[in-house]
Amino acid sequence: MKPLRIGFAGTPEFAATFLELLIRSTDLPIDIQLVLTQEDKPVGRKKILTASPVKVCAGHHNIPVFHTFEELTGKLGHLDLILVFAFGAFIPSELLSVPRLGWWNIHPSLLPLYRGPSPTAYPIMMGDSQTGVTLIKLDEKMDHGPIIAQESLPVAPNMTRDELEKAVVSPAAILFLNILKNLPEGASPEMREQEHERATITRLMKREHGFIPFELLAEATNESRNISEDELPHLMKEYVQRYDSTTENKMKSESVIYNYWRALHPWPGIWTEKDGKRIKIIACELRGEKLHITAIQIDGGTVSDNKRQISQIFEKKI
């Protein structure tokens, strides 16, 4: 069997881990001929220009790296396919049919659920017990193309978004490699259309989406109650109103806030305001029917796990 000539498009850490698994795979001959990733960006308070994790991985293996679609002109026609995993931009429609098998995309959800930029956050936010990975062939619409393969994965009750991102990598690699392993030379895989009427869309998360009113947060640390739809955190409220997807079980104040924290961890995180100060919740956990905050950061200062300080901030006033 001739080596499959593949391009890879991705950017964050978990995409780099996936790329490393492909490079090290001995199950079948793969020749990764190029990588497309986002341009270097300023990082941290000192705004140091930093390469994406995928670019770093490609550099370790001497794989040519490109940042723009213009740079790819004339470089795709000989490829069998390009695999996309968390690249972070739409693929121009005129490029979709250039590789022999097109552009494939690994999306970390059970499509058509949770299309869009935050598919690992929303299942956690909504209290789902399972999610998955889906391999599709890209078309001109967002996460809309036909399904090549799909596999379910459990979401542990205490799993955070960054942990879920790491957890999907190995199953995604196995899913992709198994499709290639069973694909006759020169053939295309079988595909099925998504159930588009079941589709839901996620939002790109922003810093302001992490805000929780202080009264609601403090209350959840002291007692449990059902909260109304209007009291839900911004992203969850928006999703529930659009898709009418909540249940009574998911409306307990402590569970809603804990799931929201897990979904937005580590960035943008959840935060509140008290006495003019911004308080970010660095760590918390559920104990019975109460939310226990175990670490905070006030106005960007040092992270504190001082139990007495945290208790004094969030204690219920009678």
Assign the CATH architecture of the largest domain. 3-Layer(aba) Sandwich
Helix-strand pattern, N to C? EHEEEHEEEHEEHHHHHEEEH
- So, the CATH homologous superfamily of the largest domain? Formyl transferase, N-terminal domain
- How much helix is in the residues? 25-40%
Strand order of the largest sheet: 5-2-1-6-7-8-9
What is the class of the largest domain in the CATH system? Alpha Beta
**Mean pLDDT, all residues:** 94
Structural class: alpha/beta
Number of domains: 2
Low-pLDDT residue intervals, each spanning 5 or more residues: none
* First-last Cα distance: 74 Å
Which strand-content bin applies to the residues? 15-25%
Number of helices: 9
Largest sheet: 7 strands, mixed
Write the CATH fold name of the largest domain. Answer: Rossmann fold
